[in-house]
Write a structure and sequence with these properties.
Layout: E1 5-9, H1 13-26, E2 30-34, H2 37-43, E3 49-54, H3 61-71, E4 78-82, H4 85-89, H5 94-99, E5 104-107, H6 111-122, H7 124-141, E6 144-148, H8 149-154, E7 162-165, E8 171-175, H9 183-191, E9 196-200, H10 201-219, H11 226-247, H12 251-270, H13 274-281, H14 288-306, H15 311-323, H16 333-336, H17 344-347, H18 351-371, H19 376-384, H20 405-423, H21 429-438, H22 449-458
Parallel strand pairs: 1-2, 1-3, 3-4, 4-5
Antiparallel strand pairs: 6-9, 7-8, 7-9
The structure holds fe (ii) ion.
Length: 461
Amino acid sequence: MSKAKVLLFYQDPSFAEFVSVHIEANFPLEVLCVNIPDKFHGYISDPSVKFCMTDHDIRTGGGRLFYLANKNGKKRPFFFLCTSEEDDTDKSLAFFFKDSKKHHAVFLHSLDEDLTSLFGKNYKEIVYAKENIEALKDKEISNLIRVRIHHILKLEKVNGDVYVKLPSGKYIKMFNSGDEVRKDTVQNMLEKGVKFLYQAREDYQEIADKVMENLKSKLSEKSLSTGEKIKLQLASVKQVQDTVKNMGINDSAIELTDEIVNSVQDVLKDSKNIWKLVSNLLKNKSYFFTRTSIQNYLLGGLVQEMGWDSHATLKKLVYASVFCDFGFTDNQKHLAEILVCESDEFRKLASIEKEIIKGHPRRAVELLKSKGGFLTDEISIIEQHHEKPDGSGFPRGIDFKHIPPMSAAFILTYDFTQTLMETSNVPDKNICIRVLDSLGSDYSKVNFEKPFHAFKTALKL
Ligand SMILES: [Fe+2]
């Protein structure tokens, strides 16, 4: 497929150079620069042209011809360069804004912001690709890695220098190692839309390792109450998922995940009422990592009823639940929540988003295989976690005859948890039964049959 293009009809060559270099360096777009009407007529019906842009006055002469050629043809979003703020409110330009909501005035002084938001509104592919380009640039330029600004906001003091990235791409130091975090400064940046600050890789790794070791030792304390254990499990799942996304898998993440398995098993030994545990966890349901924790308990109850309750089996399933969706970035949580490709929410997505969803199980598997330390069973559960008993799932579209029982147990609890979280804030048993019914009778057939009945027994439904 040829690259999406911007057709730029220019009068000022230095503007054309500036804009085309800027766009091609920052977006996955190619710029076709033309300066005589004959040339834009040659390109105007090219299907790979997605946007039109000009610095000509679109009310007269060649600028008007270019504007009309687009209006009478493919009606692409049209960006008109304004030289002063007054142009934007000039009444003689009313026709331009009225013709399409996708038409916009852009200003040279805010070209990057304007174009990012305009391209993004029209093509999600461009936003995702831009994010990737930014991430790659960060990697190439320095040893600095992105740290979510919320994370810094929670700290009293910073371990290691913290940097902020300027729109020019340069980094400036915001805090020195050991500085107290000035909450109002950070909060201010957050309100202005800054999502990430930057730290040296070693500093971040050191902090993450310390946090994970601390959580691990707290989780292993025998005197904790069930409530304290659950809180620590939630924090641990979140920490492992965050760190692994930033840094990849290392020993501390694996050791903490092992401790989560022990702690889940511990809580299950003490509590006979899984339903109560799940209801408590649902109070935190807005958090992505809550899904993992709820599923861990449902899996724990299910494996006990299946007679699979060895530590090794629960460990495989909990590992799959912690790592199955780590092929998504933080900005793609809304995609991680989509279960069914036949749903309306899926159909409404841009094609790149559909590809991201369909590719995430295999992406996670590739990443995990490259790190080593994962067993074949965990890898295949993760690869199969979006297959469906009726064969409508992905990536392979296998059905209940070909999905092994352990993956079937995982799929049942994964789909149940997600649907339950979407259904109710304070679910009772009736809602729970309705959610289970809504999954469909295929979830209780062939290889799903035993896990399904074990699940019902575990939840006393
Ligand atoms: Fe998933």
